[in-house]
Amino acid sequence: MNFQKLVEEIGEITNPSFKAKGMAALIRKEVKNYVESNGIKSLVVGISGGLDSAVVAALCQEEYTGVPLIGVSIPMSSTNAHKEQAQWVGDNYCTAFEEFNGWDNNDLFGVIEGTDNIANKAGFKSENFPKDILQGNMKARLRMITHYDLAR
Q1: Judging by DSSP bridges, how do beta strands 43-46 and 96-99 pair with one another?
Q2: Residue burial 82-120, b: 16+ Cβ < 10 Å; e: rest
Q3: Cα–Cα distance measured from residue 127 to residue 141, given in angstroms and rounded to the nearest whole number
Q4: pLDDT digit string (tens) for 58-75?
Q5: What is the pTM of this model?
Q6: Are the C-beta atoms of 71 and 57 separated by less than 8 Å?
């Protein structure tokens, strides 16, 4: 189904807030159809404390999809404000929510920085590779691994 079809179902939409509610209803309906069509038993969402994950959690609540919504926050150097916002989203939209700190006790960033020696041997100057980019890439992958594991 697309937005045009929804408009046809519910009539002319001129009020912007009504249009947003119609779009939210369409997204919820499509997610529920996907869940039912594929025999999905639960949904997993990473809650960052930002707007994007809050919107996804609000749209995918169990009351709309018929399956539990498992939320997980993996803060890895997040601000306290983001942690608090993630907790609020988890408490209000998720069937189950936890803050996962399992990656914090490992020196993963130090281990991977050991690849600097290999890069240097290949003729690259490792100091030219920004550490914040390396850490950002690692954080995204570690979060992905955790979410995929939960989704099993």
Answers
A1: unpaired
A2: bbebbbebbeebbbebeebeebeeeebeeeebeebeeee
A3: 22
A4: 999 999 999 999 999 998
A5: 0.77
A6: yes
